[in-house]
Amino acid sequence: MTTTRRRTATRAAGLLSALAISAGMLLGTLPAHADEPSGTAAATTEAPKVDLVLDVSGSMRATDIEGRSRISVAQQSIGEVIDALPAETEFGIRTLGATYPGNDKAEGCKDTRQLYPVGKTNKVEAKTAVATLRPTGWTPIGLALRGAAQDLGNGPTTRRVVLITDGEDSCAPPDPCEVARELASQGINLVVDTLGLAHDDKTRQQLLCIANATGGTYTDVRTKEQLTDKVKQLVNRAGETYRVTPAKVAGADACPNAPVLRPGVYSDREKFSEHRVYRVPVKAGEELRASVSVTPDRAVARDYGVLLLATDTRGQELVRGTDAGSGRTDVASTGLRWSAPAADEDATPSPSGNGTAGSAGSADKVVCLVVSNSFAAQAGVQAEPGLPVELTVDVAKASPSPDGPAMGLGRGWILLLVLTLAGLLAGLVFGWVARWRIAVWREN
Amino acid sequence: MRAPMMRSLTMRSPLVRAAAVLPFGLGALLAAAPAAAAASPSPALSGSAGTAPVTTAGTTFLTATPLPAGRTAAVSASTGDYLYWAFAASEGQTDTVHVTVTLPPSADRHGAQTWSVEVFDGLRRRQSCTAGPQNAAADTGTASVSMSCALRQIRSWAEPWSGDPLPGTYYVRLSVADVPQQDLGLAAQVKLQVSAKGGADNAQPEGGELKAPLVPPVNAGSTAAPDATAAAPSAKPSAPASASAAPGTVEVAAPAEPESHWYSGLFSGWNTRWYWTVAGGALAALAGVWGYTLTRHPRGRRPAGPAPVPPQAPAPQHPQYRS
After folding, report:
1. Does the domain made of A247-349+359-397 have the CATH classification 2.60.120.380?
2. A44-65, pLDDT tens digit by residue?
């Protein structure tokens, strides 16, 4: 009898230990977490730069903003904005039409000058300079924008021009909208936000065009509070986003001579119906992530589309991202993901002789990204320079397809029932076997 | 150790012990589980205590203002602006964007306008809304419009070729889709809120994992030498997937990283399957013990009666055994 007891006890202990072991094995085979690379952005030392361009032409005398003259409202608002300037922001003021009171258009249309240079602002000085302005002359907006671009200088960060005006440009050429587009295409990261004090269609059209061409905003000013708040908002926006500047790149028309991109953000220009090609090397076990945005910065037809196509070096399509739409939009964007085959899969075809991608690192695949758009210009819209394109390229660890639900763990009442029945069955079998063995032992 | 223990034990004790130990072990396991589950933060639930609303909005994908979970945005905008916010979504979540726009005074407006809210994922791919009026039209008499967009549930993994929603950054774009040109630029007030429900336990497919969330890079790129295509260091660790906020750098809305523990490498996390499986194991053990006892004779009768005869045992053995 003692032996029987011992055996039973051993079995019960064995059952427990088996459970423990299987639990341990479960834990041991769980997948490891991917560790994230922690990146640091390139530190730029530049301060946010804002240049305020104020129209001081004769029409600013009109008293139509809450019963006050446009210039006094503008002056008071600018004073409040200067008071609330963030410490790090470099702020400057340029005027147009402030000095020449005569009727000579040629002279009047050169009338723009830097009132206060872009830099660390002495608030008292700046406010005094603004307060002494008197509405005088013409409205050379195009020239003033060029001047503002010069005031702001060139650098790696985004500069912002805040244009406050009440009238359409009376001095074209240069057409201010074309000047804006030209400045934007020079790659100096200039954004022009426009604020209109008058509400006529021509002024609105022109200011919208300037804002649209540079990625800025247009505001129709109705009250002093609105003007003050908006300019403050724009100055703060400059401080928050000025470091976001994509790298300029020029895509090629075919894959073999396309620029090779590392992860990051790029900007380019693409004409209507043009294709731009870039190359991205992707290692085995990595995943390519790319997105593209095409901005219609001029009048375009109602329907539009954008296509981002990933091909291999032989032109074989890998994956495509596409988007289309119609109506008002600031951007048409799409993106794609593509995983390079795993290393072991890739190793087998490369010795067999189709190693066109590269000789040194056969594990690297080169993916060609083809960016195309189906924007169409409205009649009379110039095609040069191309539409702004923003391209984002990232290479991350590939995510293989999951093995199955939660490491083999189960869930639900059926599972409980099955396990319980299995346990019961196992218990019965063990019991019967034990009884049979007792019987055999007793027999002998 | 074993021999004395066995000697001292009664027949019944192994079973009793097994039955007694199991609940303790089970209890310990279950007690450990919620603690570990609580340690992994869910961004959907963490920031529900609302603080001051965000008062800015970006104007491009790159400059989109990050919107922390549970925070609202209240922004004064101009009609015609394209406003961008970015929020982070993690697997299993179902996010809904609610927007209310207070329109400019009716006296200044010239015609009907249509507002539209759109959601894009980290790769700037348009995401479908499963519910909610995504567009709202207002005639000149209307004072405000409301829109909402419920996204699909964020999946834990999807094939690279698919457009399924994945953990990472999501962009909200609010724009005026249709408006008379005279009405552009008028002041409007925008209120936006992103709510999330659901957690990682609901994520499909189970066991799926996206190695790196779809958080786009925001730093300027650099081109490699054209000849160096094959040897180019393609995935340099310059990828700013996790935005460590150096002063002045761009903030990225990235889902919170799960906390890493000593067991992170071995064990991917607790979920309800653990409770079910452990409970199933316990039930199976109990049922096993019960089944085992069923096959034995009631204890008292064994030495006495002839009952404990195993079916296999032939009847004539008994007299032999007793004698």
Report:
1. yes
2. 578 888 999 998 888 888 888 8
